[in-house]
Automatic annotation (TrEMBL):
Protein name: Exodeoxyribonuclease 7 large subunit
The species this protein was found in: Microbacterium lacus
First-tier enzyme category under EC: hydrolase
Every Exonuclease VII large subunit C-terminal domain range: 146-339
Quaternary assembly: Heterooligomer composed of large and small subunits.
Classification via Pfam families: Exonuc_VII_L, tRNA_anti_2
Coiled-coil ranges from the UniProt annotation: none
Keyword vocabulary terms for this entry: Cytoplasm, Exonuclease, Hydrolase, Nuclease
Source lineage: Bacteria, Bacillati, Actinomycetota, Actinomycetes, Micrococcales
UniProt function note: Bidirectionally degrades single-stranded DNA into large acid-insoluble oligonucleotides, which are then degraded further into small acid-soluble oligonucleotides.
Statement: the UniProt record of this protein carries the keyword Nuclease: yes
């Protein structure tokens, strides 16, 4: 039932220029503008009121929201609008079907005669304070970088052991295990039970997280809980748990509630799964899909290898069909003929050069003989040498009694000078 907790101003006199029933008759009716001004004057005296109800319409246009709110016990409804500047201050998860309380102020538009309410505040019933705290915590953790994608650890492709934190004998545990084993029958779990709501939720979940994180065989940790009232999910937005998840060295998957549930654990965890079933699909691969992929890759590899071998065979046949490889002796024959010609030419050149050099040597030998002292001596001349080895070129150089060596055409002999003799 819609309730009003207003700052009512009942009993206040109407505006001075307001039209009263006695002021209008069939003979002197009032104007539409004056009537609308009167209505607006009364509406403005109401001030703001708090109203409780269910959102039945939520349309966003150019940043502003135009919606309707329905009474919880009757079919009574009101229209409201939320300006973009106000919307920034409201919870981001408001949607159709939410049970809310809102602070509204009546607006009457004189030109069109439309009646609506402007919303200055709106929050979920029963979660107002918690939601405000969560938004402040969300902003704080975002500022510290706990939501940054760069710090999130990758999920292993095929974990050897999956750590599971959930309620004992819960549907969430069954969903995760059953769907994971359907996808990969050899998957192994190490389950740590913890309360998933209430006062024990946070300390038990932190204890289970630390125990699984300390186990070196655990490759990924899933924190799972089924859906429920948002009040029951507040433990998974507790700052102590969020910081423990951020500090864990093992990748953590958040699988809390349903698709529309969004505790802060979703933002801090390394991976957000919309449901426990979705978590099972995200942490292990599908064996059938992997087998199909392996078969596909094998087929592609076989086809590529066959194509490569066929291509190489064709290339080899093309090379072998070339004349130089089909009859390689032709290349050798052509080269041998060329080598024989070059060899013959070389021999001719060498022979001619040897003959020319032989003739030249003979000529030089003949010239040498002509100029040689031996040729002169052979014609009857002689050379006289003093004991010092000097050649006697002047008779005065051989004094009387001096020993001389006389060289003739064939040999030498000793002689003694009798001095210079007269000319004959």
């Amino acid at each position: 039932m819609t309730t009003f907790r207003a700052d009512p101003v009942a009993g206040e006199p109407p505006p001075p220029d307001a039209v009263r029933p006695r002021d209008s008759t069939s003979d002197s009716p009032t104007s539409v503008a004056r009537l609308n001004d009167t209505i607006r004057g009364f509406v403005e005296t109401w001030g703001s009121v708090w109203v409780e109800g269910e959102i039945t319409s939520w349309n966003v246009r150019t940043g502003n929201v135009f919606g309707r709110m329905k009474d919880l016990g009757t079919d009574a409804t009101i229209s409201f609008r939320i300006w973009s500047s106000t919307r920034q201050r409201l919870p981001a998860d408001l949607s159709v079907g939410d049970h809310v309380i809102a602070c509204v102020k009546a607006d009457y538009f004189v030109k069109s005669g439309d009646f609506s309410f402007s919303v200055s505040a709106m929050r979920h019933v029963g979660l107002g304070d918690q939601l405000e705290k969560l938004e402040r915590l969300r902003a704080k953790l975002r500022g510290e970088g706990l939501f940054d994608p760069v710090r999130k650890k990758p999920i292993p492709f095929l974990p050897h052991v999956v750590g599971l934190i959930t309620g004992e004998k819960s549907d969430a545990e069954k969903d995760v295990r059953h769907n994971a084993e359907l996808r990969w029958p050899q998957v192994r779990f190490r389950t740590a039970y913890a309360a998933v709501q209430g006062d024990r939720c946070v300390p038990e979940t932190i204890g289970a997280l630390r125990a699984l994180d300390a186990d070196p065989s655990v490759d990924v940790i899933v924190i799972a809980r089924g859906g429920g009232d948002p009040q029951h999910l507040l433990g998974f937005s507790d700052e102590r748990l969020l910081r423990a998840v951020a500090a864990a060295s093992t990748p953590v998957v958040s699988a809390i509630g349903h698709e529309n549930d969004h505790p802060l654990l979703d933002d801090v965890a390394d991976l957000r799964a919309s449901t426990p079933t979705d978590a099972a699909k995200r942490i292990v691969p599908d064996v059938l899909e992997q087998r199909a992929l392996v078969a596909q890759l094998r087929s592609r590899l076989s086809m590529r290898l066959s194509q490569r071998v066929a291509h190489d065979i064709a290339q080899l046949e093309q090379l072998r069909s070339r004349p130089v490889l089909r009859t390689p002796e032709t290349m050798i024959d052509a080269r041998s003929q060329q080598q024989w010609l070059l060899l013959s030419r070389g021999r001719d050149v060498i022979d001619r050069r040897l003959e020319a050099q032989a003739r030249r040597a003979a000529e030089l030998r003949a010239a040498l003989r002509t100029l040689s002292p031996a040729s002169t001596l052979a014609r009857g001349y002689a050379i006289a040498h003093l004991p010092s080895g000097a050649i006697v070129r002047d008779a005065s150089e051989a004094e009387a009694g001096a020993s001389v060596v006389v060289t003739v055409g064939r040999g030498s002999f000793a002689a003694r000078s009798e001095g210079e003799v007269g000319e004959r």
